[in-house]
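Pipeline run #58 for the internal structure catalog. This entry was flagged by the ingest filter as a single-chain record with no existing model, so it goes straight to prediction. Upstream metadata was stripped on purpose; only the residue string is passed forward. Reviewer on rotation: M.T. Logging verbosity set to normal.
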Amino acid sequence: MLTEMGLHAKQAARWLGRTHSEQKNAALMRLADLLETSMQGVLESNGQDVADGIRNGLSPAMLDRLTLTPARMRGMATDLRSVAGLPDPVGETFDESRLPNGLRVHKQRVPLGVLGVIYESRPNVTIDVAGLAIKTGNVAILRGGSETVRSNQALTALVHQSLADSGLPVKAVQFIADPDRARVLELMQLHEYVDLIIPRGGAGLHQFCRENSKIPVITGGIGICHLFVDASADLQAALPVIHNAKVQRPTVCNALDTVLVHQSIAEQFLPVVVESLGQAGVTFRADECAAEILSFPGEQGPKLMDRVYQAGSGDFDTEWLSLVLGIKVVSGLDEAIEHIAAHSTGHSDGILTGDPMHIARFIAEVDSAAVYVNASTRFTDGAQLGLGAEVAISTQRLHVRGPMGLRELTTYKWVIQGNYDIRI
């Protein structure tokens, strides 16, 4: 079955790769309209998936990622229209030069080809990937999680309708509905047809893809994200940044997992953080120093504040995906950078500070895909960073890092023009 899908995908890629921007944009605009006009059917399918997820004991984080709402669907439509309005990178020329021998040389952007995207829980990924793939002339073979098959089938049907209505090949976006994990392994063997594997899910999925794929894999999307509150930070302004990074949507990869606080402000600032975020339902995992600050005398010894617990051995290596926040007191910038180097997954890490030299050092020394200065980590998102949407957040070095938008879904070819030249 998948070999046939791969063959159809390769054929569609040749067609879509030479399609004009206007036709691709028309398909995106049509899909955006369908998401709004056909919303009820998709929501009904999603409701069945959510009900099954509850019965099967899915975690609150997984259920949140699985759930579609009218607002989320309208957001998906908005993102598609944004992508349609962005410049098409395909065909863009750059690095032009004329060599001493008279040859004219430039690089020209072309689609990557056929993308195999494997993801869990989040049906919005179906639309994000479809939209970005169509815009960049790429073809996508999608394999979502078994917990969201109905939702993904309903969304894929809308994608197919938009492609057909716009005169583009329906096989440009294909969905593997079979929930058997063997299909994932089979997809990763289709090196004759698939050019890149992009997993979006937990660490287990990423490891499985790296170990078993015969096709290049781009991994990312697992975030153990940090904010360091420096001694010079504006504490009144820092509090809402931390609140936003942790509370706005705690189940996503760019949500805050650990806040590091300079020891000179810890006694003043930590109780305020606990009180403010605690009102939003956050619980805390405190290192020894933070726990001492956040405790008070009890009848049988010191007692931690409500919602504060002593951090365990693996707590600072945990992507919480829930309303849990690690807190640690550090001696200064050096220890903060060392902690991030030891525990970060290279996704999104930031500093809250008023010290220009500390800003420069943090940017230079923290090796994450997204490095923040005085801003919430929640901005690591294709739409938020002006890309319209993203296929994934890459935390590796090849060939892209951070949100993978339009330009990140292209490669290039060399174009050399001469006048019947020969090499001597």
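catalog note: The mean pLDDT is 94.
catalog note: Residues 21-37 form the longest helix (17 residues).
status: ready for reviewer M.T.
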